[in-house]
Amino acid sequence: MNRVIVRKLAANVARLRVQHEFFCTDAAARVSGSNRSHEHEEKHDFSNNIQQYDIAIVGGGMVGMALACSLASMPLTKHLKVAIIDSNPALGSKVCFKKEDPPDPRVSTVTPATISLFKDVGAWQYIERHRHAYFDKMQVWDYTGLGYTSYNARDINKEILGCVVENKVLHGSLLSCIENKDFQKTIYPSRLTSMTLHPRSSPMGMDSTSSRTPSSSLRHLAKLELTDGNSLYAKLVVGADGGKSRVRELAGFKTTGWNYSQNAVICTVEHTDGNQCAWQRFLPAGPIALLPMGDNFSNIVWTMNPKESMDRKSMSEDDFVKDVNNALDYGYGPRPKSSLLGNEDMFSWLRGYVTLSANECFEVPPKVVKLASERMVFPLSLMHANDYASKHVVLIGDAAHTVHPLAGQGVNLGFGDAFALSRVIAEGIAVGTDIGEVSLLKKYEAERKLANITMMAILDGFQKAYSVDFGPLNILRAAALHGAHYISPLKRSIISYASGEQRLPLFS
Ligand SMILES: Cc1cc2nc3c(=O)[nH]c(=O)nc-3n(C[C@H](O)[C@H](O)[C@H](O)COP(=O)(O)OP(=O)(O)OC[C@H]3O[C@@H](n4cnc5c(N)ncnc54)[C@H](O)[C@@H]3O)c2cc1C
Q: Which of 54, 132, 187, 362 could bridge 80 with an S-S bond, Cβ 3.0-4.6 Å?
């Protein structure tokens, strides 16, 4: 009898294991040490040893983990000894979420270029096991009823324009991908407090801590000190520690930027049916986006002034849903009808062959019936580091640049940085260059600065163009949206650029 029960239990456990989501499995592997890569993962009892690494990644957010994942994937970099420093519990403790969990309000729209980078390193397969929503259509219009455009992936012979993924899924997928690679990483669940980029001589007391490490070798490394009292040395420090980067501050990189005096209210909402399109309407105080998330959920990113954002965060759910439906339809102004500028024939001389979406009519977005998450508020700003690299230190992601979320490009730029940096590091290793050498790191900076500044300028231009409600300007903006709708080469160029292609959004 007992044997039968034990067998049944064993079968149930096996079945549950199979059903269990991969993050739980991977996280359990991380904790139990059964995973192959765990053999390399050192515990953080470093009291008596000088810890030396090739690379110290400060900040294990989405961009820091993308760098680690890319390094773990390339033959020339996968043997590097890498430290990841971040107190975010998602990195160390048991991360466990299931497909049927309510969706997280923090999502990212990832571009086809990002998807292909994730596929290259083997991370996309993990995302596909969780909630995500590909979309092939986008509609953009404004509150005046004058400006309207729509984009379709088929305009550029592609199947999708992008995919909306919860940030926790992006992050967890990168972690899972790394766990399944043979990669020497050590996670420090702590935060960076100070950094010495060019230690001149052996720091006080260091010689006594380890006779195996000659103090002279440390002079060529950067020294990092952490909140938990640990310190470590690395040939290269990567600042992936977000918009308020401590690495950027300690390395003395200056920044340029400004606050937008706008906040974004974000949340998840529910519809009665699924949503397959990305919608964005420009309102007097800023744009509202309704992004498909899979199942019957969508994500709202609504930009407004700080006072309004606080009111909308605290108002009742019913009032908020009413406001959202208003903002996405009749509120603030009429739906676009026929063009103020005559009709599309005005642009016929510029059109070439007509894109498929040029014939698509304005559609009303699906009604929101329910709030499905908490409402979160983020202040918005633009920031760009004047330099991304100096000896032993480099910045990636939001540590190097933060942009307005109106086109969902921020983390895509960061992923671009992470993958570009790992390629440059591999190139350096191939020719025997020290990976902390400034001439090598400046190659990364040159490549990414151009791409990032171009995108920032476009997003900032959009933000500014839509922050004024003034008759003639409204017509000009409407004309620009119509131009983007009907002028086929321009339209294809815009779609390709927003998809992550490096070409500038000019006539091709
Ligand atoms: C409302 C909103 C909507 C957005 N939507 C999109 C979108 O649709 N698509 C898109 O591409 N982008 C979007 N973005 C931008 C995107 O969220 C950011 O670009 C992205 O989160 C940046 O990732 P990161 O890893 O560089 O930085 P972060 O996500 O800020 O991560 C930094 C990490 O560093 C750690 N850290 C900080 N300080 C230290 C320290 N001293 N020591 C150790 N660790 C430290 C933190 O714990 C954190 O884990 C949006 C942004 C906002 C505000």
A: 54
Please state the φ and ψ torsions of residue 139, each to the nearest 5 degrees: -120, 130
Residue 63 CA, ligand 1 centroid: distance in Å: 8
Superfamily holding 108-171+257-380+467-498: D-Amino Acid Oxidase, subunit A, domain 2 (3.30.9.10)
Measured between alpha carbons, how far is 417 from 400 in angstroms, rounded to an integer? Answer: 9
Q: What is the mean pLDDT of each run of 10 residues along the chain (508 residues)?
A: 41 35 37 34 52 97 98 97 95 70 91 95 94 92 84 85 95 94 93 87 39 61 95 97 97 92 95 91 90 94 95 97 94 71 49 58 92 96 95 97 84 96 98 96 96 82 64 62 62 66 50
Q: What residues pair up with 283 in beta bridges, in sequence order?
A: 286
**CATH 3.30.9.10 in the chain, residues?**
108-171+257-380+467-498
Question: In 10 A of CB 326, how many CB atoms?
Answer: 13
| Entry field: residues in the chain | 508
Q: Using an 8 Å Cβ cutoff, are 57 and 68 in contact? A: yes
| Domain 2-41+50-95+189-202+221-254+386-452 annotated CATH 3.40.50.410 | no
Look up the pTM and report it.
Answer: 0.84
Atom of ligand 1 nearest to the CA of 376: 1
Q: Which of 279, 303, 398 to mutate to test the pocket of ligand 1 (most atoms within 8 A of CB)?
A: 398
Write the single-letter amino acid at 197.
L
What tokens appear for 377 in the block?
Answer: 């508020």
What residue owns the CA closest to ligand 1's atom 39?
Answer: 241
Take atom 52 of ligand 1 and give the residue whose Cα is closest: 405
Tokens found for residue 158: 């592609």
The boundaries of every CATH 3.50.50.60 domain in the chain are 2-41+50-95+189-202+221-254+386-452
What is the CA(382)–ligand 1 centre distance, in A? 14
